[in-house]
Specification:
Layout lengths: L18 H7 L25 H9 L13 H14 L3 E5 L2 H10 L7 E5 L4 H10 L6 E5 L4 H7 L6 E5 L11 H10 L3 E5 L4 H4 L9 E5 L13 E5 L2 H15 L5 H11 L2 H19 L7 E3 L9 H7 L6 E5 L3 H11 L4 E2 L9 E3 L11 H7 L5 E5 L5 H13 L2
Parallel strand pairs: 2-3, 2-4, 4-5, 5-6, 10-11
Antiparallel strand pairs: 1-7, 6-7, 8-9, 9-12, 11-12
């Protein structure tokens, strides 16, 4: 059959699908070949039939693909699919989660601004806010995330931005999203939420008033430890196009089309994986909670978590992460980790494989001792990312390691 005989290309209307179906069909862009799997447009640039076409493409910026640093068809499918699931009006995929965080902050902040954030967050995020932002004349104000009175005091004066994680990495502290968004907006602040731990499956920050949501897509969205990626999503399409996009377009934290394709395929199973991992994490947390070898277990849906009521109000599950503390500090934490047979030692998370790390010497190693104390990073603290193995095998592995202590 000649090219001219090819049936007219159909673009399916998936706008009314339920969220789980959007993870499979949202943002689809089929080529003239009508492929089942999304096409991988591994190209840096695009061609034009005439110089006038190129002129028009650059004049109407964004209406046509002109360069993959600006936008790429495969990346656009990834962006549109996650945006449709998240309920965002605008999205942009980045090289890494930290590239997403940095761009979401620095596209808006300027000299003389204040940014308010909690102590409880990933080490690199804290470094940006506490160390890098002040170099550009931005004043950081750090609070204890669960303490609403500290938020209220910090936001009693004009503020440009609020940045937060909830649950936090690695102490699983929660921030009251609705209350903080209301306080932030009253202070004139834009609210950026890192939702990587909860995932869009379990928490919807836009529904609580967040303006921007960021992800390390390297984690649950990929979910199999294959590649890096990040995402910035905005509630306001105009803000995304006029504030975020000029920053990322000109600074270049653009995702590779191949990575975008891998992450796009990861979205198809995101909800199934996260729900299964959350169910397993709940079982693991219950096993660890009150175990004689464990000094403290932290999981949002445990009765022992001081913010369980808040977790039930703003999350659809406790998440895939469990943190716990062993008596005896670093030495006993290392002894337990080294005794595990199946659970792997790695600083990554959200993987199909269960992964365990010691935050004080890995993800938060570069924090000062004082900052570690403020962030709740104790020497005996261990972070466990629960995978897709049989929960009983994870529990058996932990039980064997604990019995050897």
């Amino acid at each position: 059959m000649s090219t001219s005989d090819t049936p007219a290309h159909r673009i399916p209307d998936v706008s009314d699908l339920r969220p789980r179906s959007q993870l499979v069909h949202g943002g689809i862009r089929r080529s003239s070949f009508d492929e089942t799997a999304e096409a991988l447009y591994l190209t840096s640039g695009f061609v034009y039939g005439a110089a006038e076409e190129a002129e028009e493409a650059f004049r109407t910026d964004g209406l046509r693909h002109v360069y993959s640093r600006f936008r790429n068809p495969t990346a656009a499918m990834f962006e549109d699919r996650l945006a449709s699931y998240e309920g965002a009006a605008w999205a942009y995929a980045t090289t890494t989660g930290m590239a997403a965080v940095f761009a979401a902050l620095m596209c808006h902040l300027k000299a003389g601004d204040r940014i308010v954030a909690p102590w409880g967050m990933f080490g690199s995020c804290l470094h940006i806010i506490k160390t890098i932002a002040p170099r550009y004349g931005v004043t950081p104000v750090l609070v204890d995330g669960p303490d609403l009175e500290q938020w209220r005091a910090a936001l009693a004066e004009p503020t440009a931005m609020v940045f937060l994680e909830t649950p936090s990495n690695p102490t699983l502290e929660l921030v009251d999203l609705k209350a903080v968004c209301d306080l932030a907006h009253a202070a004139g602040a834009l609210v950026v939420v890192d939702n990587a731990f909860a995932t869009p499956v379990l928490q919807r920050p836009f529904e609580s008033g967040a303006d921007v949501v960021v992800y390390s897509a390297t984690k649950h969205i990929d979910g199999q430890g294959r590649c890096l990626g990040g995402m910035i999503l905005a509630a306001d399409a105009r803000y995304g196009a006029e504030v975020i996009h000029p920053f990322v377009r000109n600074t270049g934290p653009t995702i590779s089309p191949f990575n975008a394709w891998v992450l796009l395929k990861g979205l198809e199973t995101l909800e199934l994986r996260v729900r299964a991992q959350t169910e397993a994490a709940t079982a693991v947390a219950r096993f660890l909670d009150g175990h004689p070898g464990i000094a403290r277990t932290v999981y949002p849906m445990l009765d022992s978590h001081p913010q369980r009521a808040l977790a039930e109000r703003q999350m659809a599950g406790g998440g895939t992460m469990v943190s716990f503390e062993v008596a005896g500090g670093k030495a006993e934490a290392f002894r337990l980790m080294n005794a595990l047979r199946m659970v792997l030692i790695s600083n990554n998370l959200g993987d199909a494989k269960s992964l365990i790390t010691h935050p004080a010497t890995s993800t938060h190693a570069r924090l000062t001792d004082e900052d570690k104390v403020r962030a709740g990073i104790r020497p005996g603290l261990i972070r466990l990312s629960v995978g897709l193995e049989d929960p009983l095998d994870i529990i058996d592995d932990l039980d064997r390691a604990l019995k050897g202590m």
